Amino acid sequence: MTKIERSIVIDRPVDEVWEFVHDTTKDALWQTTLVESEKLTDGPMGLGTRVRELRNFLGLRIEVAWEVTEFEPNTTSAIKGVSGPIPLSGRYRLEPLDAGTRLTVSGELDAHGFFKLAEPVFARITRRELEANLGHLKDLLEADKGAEMDAAAAALTDERVQRR
Fold it and tell me: Residue 66 has what pLDDT?
């Protein structure tokens, strides 16, 4: 069994990070191997939600489906694979910090067959992919903040010019 865990600090409030990472329509923006994602259940993301994903990994197209098994808004969520070639589980933990949010992503993969034979290589690639994904997520969320900060700075500058 392969266990992977990585954390990143994102300069955004917990609720914004939570909302973004639980919006499956945005997953392809920051998850590098995701080709498509489809929510299979109606209603908002929550306990029991099921999602189907198609991913490219090592030149293979892999379809998996997972179900949300834990959902505590702005704190933690967990999933468990319900179909696909590799049994998997994962968890997001969010912690508020003075400088934003610490997001910790952990997962367990129980490789079999081809994937079991290549598990050490598979684990390294998966760890690197997770690090890259978290970097993309941080860049996306903090870029939004930068745009807001630029707009606020421009408004303040305009106000100062008008006072003169």
Answer: 97
